[in-house]
Amino acid sequence: MMIDYDRYDRIRAVQWQGDALRLLDQRVLPLRTEFVTCTSADDVALAIRNLTVRGAPAIGIAAAYGVALAARAAADAVTGQVPADALRAAFAALRASRPTAVNLFWALDRMARVLGDITSADRLAHEAIAIEREDLAANRHMGELGAALIDANSGVLTHCNTGSLATAGFGTALGVIRAAYAQGKLARVFNTETRPWLQGTRLTAWELLTDGIPAKLIADAAAAHLMSTGAVQWVVVGADRIAANGDTANKIGTLQLAVVARHFGAKLMVVAPSSTVDMAMPNGREIHIELREPRELLEHAGQRVAAAGVDAWNPVFDVVPAALIDAIVTERGVIERPDQTKMLRMFGNA
Ligand code: MRU
Fold it and tell me: Which of 45, 68, 255, 298 is geometrically suited to a Cys-Cys bond with 125, CB 3.0 to 4.6 A?
């Protein structure tokens, strides 16, 4: 069934302008629509670190454009050629921006392969554009593959933000929800607030509203109660890194949703492009989980709410064991009840 992308794919968070990268500032959405303009790789690295741009595929795309910006700056004025050495610092800054989402490293490795010893700045820009276009195409394909798993009259729950804001467009898990809604299959859509950074409250709820998809925001802590009522048939989430055995790192709180879903008979669907698969990572235990500042928990809207002296632990991702996942949807196809053998069959060795 054809999906009306004019309705369901309207937001672009990462905008390449040829000589700069324009980012929709996700720190201030939805109350303010502002853009940050990056003109160097360092600008892009900072924007990734401070979450101006976020979401695994989006940070990979932004990093690729960061390399393109560095290449423009370093290119020979006559030939347009850039030696690999001139981009070393740019690659290093971008690689150090965030640790968990493998899409960042995947995109930088792909740019490095194009670079070789020397190439033109234009060639690097074209590679970044290709990475962005392929991500959009993958999302639209995954939307159809994932929606096909959902029965009519179902309820879905999603976590964090996996929509246009987190990708080149349309989204991964949110793309599946968009496609399933467009097909008239969804009776109920819920999304979590996603503490502490509120990607759900601020970003996903806004994307759903923008599309005219009726949805209800729930407190993270309401998820178990919601699922105990039988209102949710599928929990649909994205991923930051999928290991070779199917273990999946995603936004903190995904693990408790997975446990609760299994307990109450709801299914868990992980939706991510193949650029999120890390076959060099044998299992989820070894995935580097980003720790962010305690401040994100101790403050609310920039205002301290915890007593002075209170400390906090703020891991922002967790790992769902493959055994709790019912389906992994990538643009290459669907793996039901993932394990190492099925992953290897679809993705090959690292
Ligand atoms: O810290 P964030 O907002 O970058 O985390 C984002 C997530 O965990 C998403 O669920 C994941 O990156 C998939 S986005 C398509």
Answer: 68
